[in-house]
């Protein structure tokens, strides 16, 4: 099942993130400063990605026969592009980042650790901080929650297949509520609960789990809509709980709340009123969505360094042109290399 609108949604999400990074995130670096700082909301595009991921991963799991096969497919999807993007970013930064805007990107150790998809601070802690690791590029942070989600959801799926949704939502809700409770409590250093709080900080799936769960809920709605079945009432209750949890986190921030409900609305429209979104099913958005992973990996470090060097203190023509170029490169890479690499690996491994 491939839903073109989901690819278009990915396209929207990646554009949000790029505009945030190129116009709002690094205002002290841009030659045009904060003159075009209108895209602070763009960082929420990552949360939109998490919701899309929840939807897509359930579809993938239902087509998979074992947890090992599922994880192999995920690594084939993620690792080759991560390797290529990391090498490109590293080579670019050591040659062109002469102002050291991205110091962590200048070390081969960070390139190697990024390929594990694991939180670098966790690995540093495990080896007694004899080596301090960091992400090669700061955008890589979102891959660690993704990998945790893959392990969490696939384990529950294959162990509790008959009651998967109930078990998954119950455990996800418990984890989310425990995380909120720990935010309010103060523990003495070295106590069991203090250690648990630090574990939740490093294994940070709890912060993004409500987004993944909402994506899974919409997958349930979509599949049941196609089959003309009814959704169990408990499923709606779980959905409401996860929505309320995220409202709790966003409470007091009108922009975040607004975009959160826009994302929810886009999913409801995709399932029940798709005709209102047909204009989004165009080739550009779809191709941008399909190539969004590689574009996400390369855009920030490379883009910000180039903007600092070549943009001018006026209307940012260069930044807009750079967005177009990076999108074109990512589309060409995805369709001419990534898809072929993935096909080869699936046939030979």
Automatic annotation (TrEMBL):
The keyword Transmembrane applies. It comes from the Bacteria. The chain crosses the membrane at residues 12-28, 48-71, 78-96, 139-159, 166-187, 199-222, 234-251, 257-272, 284-305, 317-336. Keywords: Acyltransferase, Membrane, Transferase, Transmembrane, Transmembrane helix. The keyword Metal-binding does not apply. GO terms for molecular function: acyltransferase activity. Residues 6-332 form the Acyltransferase domain. This is Acyltransferase.
